[in-house]
Amino acid sequence: MQIISWLFSVIGLFLSLWIIVPAPNYFLLPLGVVMPEVSPWLVGINAIALVIAVLQIDGGYLSFVLPVISLLALGLSLRPLIQLPRVNQQFASAMEQALGNNYLDEISEAVKSQMRSQPFILVDMFRGIDSSEVRILRGINFASPDGVELKLNTYRPLSPGKYPGIIIIYGGAWRQGSPNKYERFSCYMAARGYTVIAIDYRHAPKYQFPAQLEDVNTALNYIREQANDLEVDVERLALLGRSAGGHLAMLAAYGSEAIGVKAVVNYYGPTNLVEGYREPPVPDPIDTRKVLENFLGGTPESHLDLYQQASPINYVKPNLPPSLFIYPERDHLVQAKYGRQIYDKLQTTDSLAILLTIPWAEHAFDAVFKGVSNQLALYYTERFIAWALK
């Protein structure tokens, strides 16, 4: 029994520490990403460990070690849940400040009835988030630049029709990934009345910028041309990207070719590549400078114009599509300060922008679809998109 108690307490503390300790390398990064998102599970584990440890107190000094360890672990695992109400209130205020106190009144009752009822639903941590059945068509070829077949996936409601569109651009440091990533989000939104189209692009280092942006714009043109077959209303399009995909979504949405784009949603995307190179995160589990050199072909000293051309912050101007930025405060791949930079710059123009930051979350938090952070982000993302594409 004592061995089991030690295992429970030590393992609980080890896992809970990743809620506050940044991952020092890429191998350990999943722990930093996942542990804050499954904190309700950790609370249960640590509570059980604490009860077992307390029951074994026999009056000796050493018998108090395990209860202290479990109590510390329990406190760490409770941090996201303790912070959640305050952060949710900040998010609600930011949305209302940007869109108006009654912005939800502008969304139809039919659409609102499909959205999540609460920013966080504890039981969904255990049962998952229902996405309902949708029509999925994968592997549609939309271009073949330099012989590279670029494909897209569509996720559509069961009933044929013409729906507002969400174009998804995946992340992966511009080096890897496919339209199949984060399918649960795509299915979730499709089940709520959107045509979701996940698109592909060529990867670095073989293909360097602006090849990726060219591919995104090619996909946008294809979607407009094939709108009827794809069942998408090209007058109501939102671009949504994660990490490198968020970067490309901003460049495309703020560029002159993004006709019909009514909104952009950027999950933790790079915005200032010059500063990103010169001030990498600490620790730096993916070697940010190497990633940027692969993407742009060199350093800011040798390729400054290209770094500036590839930085969304340099495209800020009046009357851009409304933007929603979601950044984790503990991000050690793309620091949250770059989200604040572009948000602050947008605030100086007539362009609408919303910045939501999650204090306990790490980069790619939404990979845990039913996790604490993604539930919160999903709640406000679907409201923003519904408002923008109404």
In total, how many beta strands?
8
* Basic shape: globular
Mean pLDDT: 95
> Order of strands side by side in the largest beta sheet?
1-2-4-3-5-6-7-8
First-residue to last-residue Cα separation:
59 Å
Given as residue ranges, the uncertain stretches (5+ residues, pLDDT < 50) are none
**Count of helix runs:** 15
The computed structural class is alpha/beta
Q: How much of the residues is beta strand, in percent?
A: 5-15%
Main pleated sheet? 8 strands, mixed
Summarize the helix and strand pattern as letters: HHHHHHEEEHEHHEHEHHHEHEH
How helical, in percent, are the residues?
40-55%
Which structural traits does this protein have?
alpha/beta; 8-stranded mixed beta sheet; 15 helices; 44% helix
Could you walk me through the main structural features you see in this protein, from its secondary elements to its overall organization?
Helix content is 44%, strand content 15%. The chain is built from 15 helices and 8 strands. Strands 1-2-4-3-5-6-7-8 form an 8-stranded mixed beta sheet, with helices on both faces. The longest helix has 35 residues, at 65-99.
Summarize the structure.
The chain is of the alpha/beta class and 390 residues long. It contains 15 helices and eight strands.
Task: Describe the secondary structure blueprint for this structure.
Layout: H1 2-17, H2 29-37, H3 39-55, H4 65-99, H5 109-112, H6 124-127, E1 135-143, E2 150-156, E3 163-169, H7 183-190, E4 195-199, H8 211-225, H9 227-230, E5 232-242, H10 244-254, E6 261-267, H11 273-278, H12 288-296, H13 304-309, E7 323-328, H14 336-347, E8 353-358, H15 372-388
Parallel strand pairs: 3-4, 3-5, 5-6, 6-7, 7-8
Antiparallel strand pairs: 1-2, 2-4
Helix pairs in contact: 1-3, 1-4, 3-4, 4-15, 8-10
